[in-house]
Sequence to fold (198 residues):
Amino acid sequence: MYTLLSGLYKHLTRKEEYYVLIIGLDNAGKTTLLERIKSIFMGIAGLAPDRIAPTVGLNIAKVDIKSVKVNFWDLGGQKELHSIWERYYSECHAIVFVVDSTDSKRLEECRDTFEKMITNDAVEGVPVLMLANKQDVLGALKVEDIKEVFNKIAVKLGARDSRVLPVSALEGNGVRDAVDWLILRLQRNKMNRPPSYR
Ligand code: G3D
Ligand code: MG
Fold:
């Protein structure tokens, strides 16, 4: 009887677990975003911005958000590391692509990198959230400006859910809305990419 009840309890309390990649060019603000997500959803004071070193390996955070568990993987953004991203594509449930809205000089490089990612067969149908980061900086490109640059390749997004949202990872503005968008899409795409259960 105990086994039956504890089995039922486990079944009822088990949580869906998802994996989300955070990628983008180096210096876009990926690690700052991860620290911000940790501080909002785990109540952990994030690292002070001056303590965030360029990511060489992988930063991970496992966060309980609403009724699900989300593992965020912040992969390094340097060009040499882009080939490593691909190893995670088949396992991820969604991708967050962070753009430095203050760096118009690198927008084309950014678009090429994004295009390479979305045309990889291993992420077909996976929801993609693009974040126009650093919106706290005066004169930063707006979502509309960034969309214009990425419009040329929008057709390659296919039938997947995608969105561009403005955020400031540093100050936290927009981060909650971005994560809300993500959670809904993870759950909507459950049939294509089933979560694991813990
Ligand atoms: P990365 O992990 O994508 O390489 P980091 O990027 O998170 O290391 O951030 C790179 C730099 O951008 C850091 O500045 C960081 O403080 C800054 N940054 C990240 N997000 C924001 C933001 O929303 N607004 C502003 N103003 N700056 C941001 P430093 O000076 O430490 O290199
Ligand atoms: Mg980093």
Remarks:
- The mean pLDDT is 91.
